[in-house]
Design goal:
The complex is a heterodimer of chains A (246) and B (183).
Chain A (H helix, E strand, L loop, with lengths): L12 H5 L5 H12 L2 H10 L2 H5 L12 H16 L14 H20 L14 E9 L6 E9 L2 E9 L8 E8 L10 E7 L7 E7 L8 E8 L10 E5 L4
Antiparallel strand pairs in A: 1-2, 1-8, 2-3, 3-6, 4-5, 4-7, 7-8
Chain B lengths: L4 H9 L5 H22 L2 H18 L10 H18 L20 H19 L3 H12 L4 H8 L3 H21 L5
Helix pairs in contact in B: 1-2, 2-3, 2-4, 2-5, 3-4, 4-5, 6-8, 7-8
Classes of the chains: A alpha+beta (246), B mainly alpha (183).
């Protein structure tokens, strides 16, 4: 297909297809179409474009460093495959999941240290605090649910959580309760562990936890299922997530 | 479009991980990253999708046969499989799915990927057009201005708007064909 064809294009085909001709102009063009095989062919060839244009995804910028990270990842894997050392290669680029796991581990480890003060999961017996109630619902359509009563005081927030409808976790795994930021992503985790727990054969648990992590930064409460592997990061699936307000 | 994709893949298969790999990255990364972001709603997973797609592209480059399919088809078959695996990974779901597509329990991730790829290919094809044609098409259709408003905004005669729109559509059709999108 040559870009110079046709020599003298009947360019009204484009505004006609895009719905940009006034009614009178459109009528004139349709009358022209009757006698112009070239325009009819163009119309036929280009007729599917407006529907596709309407589906155009918004442009999203690709992170600056991704090109170098991707090229390095491929070259390193190729070098490893050849059993050769990469001489003067940039700093090793691990797959994103690997970096995320250890970033998470570092953040969570710091939080665990912060919580590991005497009586790490404190029972809070204060009075006069502001009380908020939240509900938790099953993340993937299960029967699990929870009622969370949060009492805020100058010292922090105490959580009284009643869980029901969860299946006792398989050997080697535990449920974990989290306070999560609304800006939390897997790449940049912003969440605080409130402790791990299990449930009885009746699927119920009654938990008490305390954190000084600020309520305005970590307002979301959720539960995941985590392997007992010594890694304090979240790696498992969501089990309970916030229910509808009210 | 420069050296064709099939030759680039052949050079990668031959062990050249310099220019051919960089050129393939430049041609495909935006769509792969967009797919990751839209499907998974997480920047880290989107990066993982891009990196792993290129690693697998390199690993399987010697199996690419131009007689059996196009390069975009080859690249996105790899990406599609990876994207679905990432979608299904238990820990891949942020607590707050900001900006990600709906993950209803009955949603088939393959369908979602295919649907997203059409939109991403259209965006990529648009971005490949000469600037003048791209701007006119975007203002006319995506921003819904009249031809006269576009002429004023761009500072060209009305006839030029019509000409650019016409050749822009022709070029878009060709750009979509190169990306395996039927018009």
């Amino acid at each position: 297909m040559s870009m110079s064809e046709p020599a003298s294009p009947h360019v009204e085909v484009a505004p006609y297809l895009l719905g940009k001709l006034e009614a009178e102009e459109a009528e004139r063009f349709e009358a022209h179409l009757d006698g112009c095989a070239d325009c009819r062919r163009q119309l036929d060839e280009l007729g599917g474009l407006p529907a596709l244009l309407a589906q155009a995804a918004p442009a999203t910028p690709v992170p600056d460093g991704l090109r170098a990270r991707t090229l390095t990842a491929v070259r390193e894997r190729a070098a490893e495959a050849e059993g050769a050392a990469v001489v003067e290669a940039p700093a090793r680029v691990r797959p994103a999941w690997w970096r995320r796991r250890w970033l998470l581990a570092a953040v969570a480890a710091a939080l665990v240290v912060a919580l590991a003060i005497p009586g790490g999961l404190l029972l809070f017996g204060g009075d006069g605090g502001e009380v908020t109630r939240l509900t938790l619902v099953a993340a993937e359509g299960g029967k699990g649910r929870g009622q969370v009563t949060i009492t805020s005081t100058p010292a922090g927030r105490s959580f009284d959580v009643r869980i029901e409808g969860l299946v006792p976790p398989a050997a080697g795994s535990l449920y974990e309760l989290w306070a999560v930021s609304r800006q939390d992503t897997l790449e940049r985790p912003q969440r605080v562990s409130l402790g791990t727990f299990t449930v009885g054969a009746d699927g119920r648990a009654h938990l008490k936890a305390f954190t000084a992590a600020p309520a305005d930064r970590f307002p979301v409460v959720g539960v995941t299922l985590e392997p007992v592997d010594g890694n304090p990061a979240r790696t498992g699936p969501r089990v309970l997530v916030p229910g509808p307000p009210g | 479009m420069g050296e064709d994709d099939a030759k680039l893949i052949a050079r990668v298969a031959g062990g050249d991980l310099g220019h051919p790999l960089e050129e393939l990255y430049d041609r495909y990364a935006a769509r792969l990253h967009g797919l990751g972001l839209r499907l998974l709603g997480d920047p880290g997973l989107a990066e993982e999708l891009v990196q792993e797609t290129f690693v697998r592209l390199w690993q399987s480059a010697d199996r690419y046969d131009p007689q059996r399919g196009s390069v975009p088809g080859f690249v996105f078959t790899i990406a599609r499989r990876l994207a679905i695996d990432l979608w299904r990974r238990p820990s891949s779901k942020p607590f707050t799915d900001l900006g990600a597509v709906d993950r209803g329990p009955h949603q088939d991730p393959g369908d979602v990927v295919d649907q997203l790829l059409v939109g991403l290919n259209v965006r990529d094809a648009l971005a490949s057009l000469p600037e003048g044609q791209r701007v006119v098409l975007e203002l006319l259709y995506l921003q819904d201005l009249t031809q006269r408003q576009v002429a004023d905004r761009v500072g060209v005669p009305l006839g030029t708007v019509k000409t650019r729109a016409f050749y822009g559509l022709r070029a878009l059709k060709e750009a979509l064909r190169q990306r395996d999108v039927d018009v």
